[in-house]
Amino acid sequence: MVKVYIIFYTRYGNTFKLAEMIAEGVNSVRGCEAILRRTAELAPEEIIHKDVRWKKMRDTLKKLPEAKASDLFEADAVIFGSPTRYGNMSSSLKDFIDKTAGVWIKGGLVGKVGAAFTSSTSVHGGQETTLLTMFIPMLHHGMVIAGIPYSEELLFTTKEGGSPYGASSVSGLMAEEPPTANDCALAKALGKRVAELALKLKLGEEALKKQV
Ligand SMILES: Cc1cc2nc3c(=O)[nH]c(=O)nc-3n(C[C@H](O)[C@H](O)[C@H](O)COP(=O)(O)O)c2cc1C
Q: Which of 1, 2, 4 is nearest to 23 (CA)?
């Protein structure tokens, strides 16, 4: 099986919903499996307890294992997701990535497909910078970056989320507007694309080994 790890942080669940849609896209490709992992919650318990929606989501996410750097060795592709934080990824996802030096030194992600997704309050709140800056550590790891191509026609018309840089959603001021049907369709398309690319790379690698 080709394993596509979807590693994300979320506070209110918008990024989680996109992660689930991406997983559907991955699982729609025969021979590919999506594996969802959350990154650590770094906020203090007393802060989370004051926010009912945050606490509920944190409890929901407990059913998912926390991502470990060693997961990356097993992965054939990795899709990182984070809410937009000042036009960049969250500290939780960055903290996870900052702990992957042991993978980097061994080239554990070299040649593997990487992609990204995010959710933000507003359309122009920095989704694209978040997605693009998530690519930078992936390039340091030697990953092959994938976005969403314009062959997905929704990209021509979206006034919501979704961009050539990855999947996204616009959640509004209170983060209460879940990903729309179009956001979900583009997220599924991203998952499917990453899975297909990872499968092609794996088959290509096997063919190359036979040639030698
Ligand atoms: C510290 C902080 C910084 C944020 N920065 C931005 C930002 O730069 N642009 C934006 O549109 N939304 C920003 N947001 C809002 C979140 O990105 C938005 O609510 C997102 O949809 C939450 O995703 P989640 O439901 O997965 O937690 C910020 C939120 C927090 C708490």
A: 4
Residue 143: name the closest of 36, 5, 17 by CA.
5
CATH, residue 15 = 3.40.50.360
- What is the distance in A from the centroid of ligand 1 to the CA of 2? 32
Give me the number of domains the chain comprises. 1
Q: How confident is the model at residue 212 (pLDDT cuts 50, 70, 90)?
A: confident
Which residue range(s) make up the domain with 58? 2-211
Can you tell me which atom of ligand 1 is nearest the CA of 87?
8
The model's confidence at residue 54, banded by pLDDT at 50, 70 and 90, is very high
* Ligand 1 pocket at CB < 6 A: 10-15, 83-87, 119-122, 125-126, 171, 175
Mean pLDDT confidence for 203-211: 92
Closest CA to 109 of 75, 147, 136, 68: 75
More confident residue, 205 or 189: 189
d(CA 209, CA 3): 20
Q: What is the pLDDT of residue 49?
A: 95
